[in-house]
Amino acid sequence: MTKTKTYAALLRGINVSGHRKVPMAELRSLLEGLGHTDVRTYLQSGNAVFTTDSGAGEDELRTALEDAIEDRFGFRVDCLVRDGDYLAAVADACPFPAAELQGKQLHAFYYSGPADPERFASIDREAFLPEDFALGDRVLYLYTPEGLGKSKLGEAVSRPSVVKGLVATGRNWNTVLRLIEMTRED
Known about the structure:
- By secondary structure, this protein is an alpha+beta fold.
- The protein contains six helices and eight strands.
- The protein has helices at residues 24-33, 58-73, 84-92, 152-157, 160-163, 173-184; strands spanning 5-11, 37-42, 47-52, 79-83, 106-111, 132-136, 139-143, 168-172.
Protein backbone atom coordinates (compact mmCIF):
# COMPACT_ATOMS: atom_id res chain seq x y z
CA MET A 1 0.00 0.00 0.00
CA THR A 2 1.30 3.44 -0.94
CA LYS A 3 1.64 5.96 1.86
CA THR A 4 -0.44 9.14 1.66
CA LYS A 5 1.74 12.19 1.19
CA THR A 6 0.95 15.91 1.31
CA TYR A 7 2.19 18.27 -1.40
CA ALA A 8 2.02 21.93 -2.28
CA ALA A 9 1.45 22.94 -5.89
CA LEU A 10 2.98 26.31 -6.77
CA LEU A 11 1.53 27.77 -9.94
CA ARG A 12 3.51 30.43 -11.76
CA GLY A 13 2.05 33.65 -13.14
CA ILE A 14 -1.68 33.20 -12.75
CA ASN A 15 -4.37 35.73 -11.77
CA VAL A 16 -2.06 38.69 -12.36
CA SER A 17 -3.86 41.85 -13.54
CA GLY A 18 -6.79 39.80 -14.80
CA HIS A 19 -4.66 37.60 -17.05
CA ARG A 20 -4.37 33.81 -17.05
CA LYS A 21 -7.29 33.47 -14.69
CA VAL A 22 -7.48 30.28 -12.69
CA PRO A 23 -10.19 30.59 -10.03
CA MET A 24 -9.18 28.78 -6.85
CA ALA A 25 -12.48 26.88 -6.63
CA GLU A 26 -11.84 25.50 -10.11
CA LEU A 27 -8.24 24.65 -9.21
CA ARG A 28 -9.48 22.70 -6.18
CA SER A 29 -12.01 20.88 -8.37
CA LEU A 30 -9.34 20.13 -10.96
CA LEU A 31 -6.98 18.67 -8.31
CA GLU A 32 -9.81 16.56 -6.90
CA GLY A 33 -10.54 15.37 -10.44
CA LEU A 34 -6.93 14.15 -10.61
CA GLY A 35 -7.70 11.91 -7.62
CA HIS A 36 -6.16 14.08 -4.90
CA THR A 37 -7.80 14.58 -1.53
CA ASP A 38 -7.85 17.19 1.23
CA VAL A 39 -7.39 19.88 -1.44
CA ARG A 40 -7.04 23.44 -0.14
CA THR A 41 -5.86 26.68 -1.72
CA TYR A 42 -4.14 29.70 -0.24
CA LEU A 43 -4.57 33.19 -1.63
CA GLN A 44 -5.44 33.76 -5.29
CA SER A 45 -1.88 33.53 -6.59
CA GLY A 46 -1.69 29.81 -7.24
CA ASN A 47 -0.94 27.95 -4.05
CA ALA A 48 -2.68 24.63 -3.47
CA VAL A 49 -2.11 21.84 -0.98
CA PHE A 50 -3.33 18.29 -1.51
CA THR A 51 -2.75 14.74 -0.38
CA THR A 52 -2.30 11.74 -2.62
CA ASP A 53 -1.55 8.07 -2.25
CA SER A 54 -0.84 7.62 -5.95
CA GLY A 55 2.86 6.95 -5.42
CA ALA A 56 3.62 9.47 -8.16
CA GLY A 57 6.67 11.70 -7.76
CA GLU A 58 6.83 15.47 -7.93
CA ASP A 59 7.50 15.56 -11.67
CA GLU A 60 4.60 13.22 -12.50
CA LEU A 61 2.25 15.23 -10.29
CA ARG A 62 3.44 18.48 -11.89
CA THR A 63 2.97 17.23 -15.45
CA ALA A 64 -0.52 15.91 -14.70
CA LEU A 65 -1.50 19.25 -13.15
CA GLU A 66 -0.04 21.33 -16.01
CA ASP A 67 -1.84 19.14 -18.57
CA ALA A 68 -5.13 19.37 -16.66
CA ILE A 69 -4.89 23.17 -16.40
CA GLU A 70 -4.22 23.43 -20.13
CA ASP A 71 -7.17 21.15 -20.91
CA ARG A 72 -9.51 23.08 -18.60
CA PHE A 73 -8.42 26.69 -19.19
CA GLY A 74 -6.83 26.61 -22.65
CA PHE A 75 -3.38 27.83 -21.61
CA ARG A 76 -0.36 26.19 -20.07
CA VAL A 77 0.79 27.18 -16.58
CA ASP A 78 4.19 26.23 -15.23
CA CYS A 79 3.85 24.51 -11.88
CA LEU A 80 6.15 23.14 -9.23
CA VAL A 81 5.05 20.44 -6.82
CA ARG A 82 6.93 20.03 -3.54
CA ASP A 83 6.21 17.86 -0.54
CA GLY A 84 5.82 19.24 2.95
CA ASP A 85 9.17 17.88 4.14
CA TYR A 86 10.98 19.77 1.38
CA LEU A 87 9.16 23.01 2.21
CA ALA A 88 10.06 22.65 5.89
CA ALA A 89 13.70 21.87 5.03
CA VAL A 90 13.87 25.04 2.89
CA ALA A 91 12.62 27.13 5.81
CA ASP A 92 14.97 25.41 8.27
CA ALA A 93 17.96 26.04 5.98
CA CYS A 94 17.23 29.75 5.49
CA PRO A 95 20.49 31.64 6.07
CA PHE A 96 18.71 34.92 6.84
CA PRO A 97 17.17 35.75 10.24
CA ALA A 98 13.61 35.03 9.08
CA ALA A 99 12.05 35.41 12.54
CA GLU A 100 13.39 38.98 12.74
CA LEU A 101 12.12 40.05 9.30
CA GLN A 102 8.76 41.03 7.89
CA GLY A 103 7.32 38.56 5.39
CA LYS A 104 7.71 41.06 2.55
CA GLN A 105 11.46 41.30 3.22
CA LEU A 106 12.27 37.65 2.61
CA HIS A 107 11.33 35.48 -0.35
CA ALA A 108 11.93 31.96 -1.54
CA PHE A 109 12.25 31.45 -5.28
CA TYR A 110 11.65 27.78 -5.95
CA TYR A 111 13.27 26.25 -9.02
CA SER A 112 12.54 23.17 -11.09
CA GLY A 113 16.21 22.18 -10.90
CA PRO A 114 19.41 22.95 -9.03
CA ALA A 115 20.21 26.57 -8.21
CA ASP A 116 23.80 26.30 -9.41
CA PRO A 117 26.09 29.12 -8.23
CA GLU A 118 27.47 29.48 -11.78
CA ARG A 119 24.09 30.83 -12.92
CA PHE A 120 24.42 33.76 -10.53
CA ALA A 121 28.16 34.41 -10.85
CA SER A 122 27.65 37.41 -13.14
CA ILE A 123 25.63 39.28 -10.50
CA ASP A 124 27.68 41.85 -8.60
CA ARG A 125 26.16 41.27 -5.18
CA GLU A 126 28.01 44.21 -3.63
CA ALA A 127 26.24 46.58 -6.03
CA PHE A 128 22.85 45.61 -4.58
CA LEU A 129 23.57 45.81 -0.84
CA PRO A 130 21.84 45.76 1.58
CA GLU A 131 19.79 43.35 -0.56
CA ASP A 132 21.28 39.89 -0.75
CA PHE A 133 20.57 36.32 -1.80
CA ALA A 134 21.66 32.83 -0.91
CA LEU A 135 21.23 29.51 -2.68
CA GLY A 136 19.81 26.28 -1.34
CA ASP A 137 18.30 23.03 -2.58
CA ARG A 138 16.37 24.12 -5.70
CA VAL A 139 15.72 27.47 -4.03
CA LEU A 140 17.06 31.01 -3.90
CA TYR A 141 16.52 32.99 -0.71
CA LEU A 142 16.14 36.69 -1.45
CA TYR A 143 16.45 39.37 1.23
CA THR A 144 14.82 42.65 0.18
CA PRO A 145 14.66 45.16 3.06
CA GLU A 146 12.29 47.45 1.11
CA GLY A 147 10.17 44.63 -0.32
CA LEU A 148 10.22 42.86 -3.66
CA GLY A 149 8.42 45.66 -5.51
CA LYS A 150 11.39 47.98 -5.02
CA SER A 151 14.08 45.33 -5.36
CA LYS A 152 16.75 45.71 -8.04
CA LEU A 153 18.40 42.45 -6.97
CA GLY A 154 15.08 40.66 -7.46
CA GLU A 155 15.13 41.78 -11.08
CA ALA A 156 18.75 40.67 -11.50
CA VAL A 157 18.25 37.14 -10.15
CA SER A 158 15.12 36.72 -12.30
CA ARG A 159 16.65 37.70 -15.64
CA PRO A 160 15.94 35.15 -18.37
CA SER A 161 19.68 34.73 -18.94
CA VAL A 162 20.09 33.68 -15.30
CA VAL A 163 17.14 31.31 -14.93
CA LYS A 164 17.12 29.99 -18.50
CA GLY A 165 15.84 26.43 -18.61
CA LEU A 166 14.32 26.54 -15.13
CA VAL A 167 10.78 27.03 -13.97
CA ALA A 168 10.99 29.59 -11.18
CA THR A 169 8.28 30.89 -8.90
CA GLY A 170 8.66 33.06 -5.82
CA ARG A 171 6.74 33.31 -2.56
CA ASN A 172 7.13 35.78 0.27
CA TRP A 173 8.08 34.36 3.64
CA ASN A 174 4.56 34.60 5.06
CA THR A 175 3.36 32.34 2.25
CA VAL A 176 6.34 30.00 2.70
CA LEU A 177 5.40 29.52 6.36
CA ARG A 178 1.69 29.15 5.66
CA LEU A 179 2.29 26.44 3.05
CA ILE A 180 4.43 24.56 5.58
CA GLU A 181 1.58 24.76 8.10
CA MET A 182 -0.93 23.59 5.51
CA THR A 183 1.17 20.61 4.46
CA ARG A 184 1.43 19.57 8.13
CA GLU A 185 -2.26 19.94 9.00
CA ASP A 186 -4.07 16.66 9.45
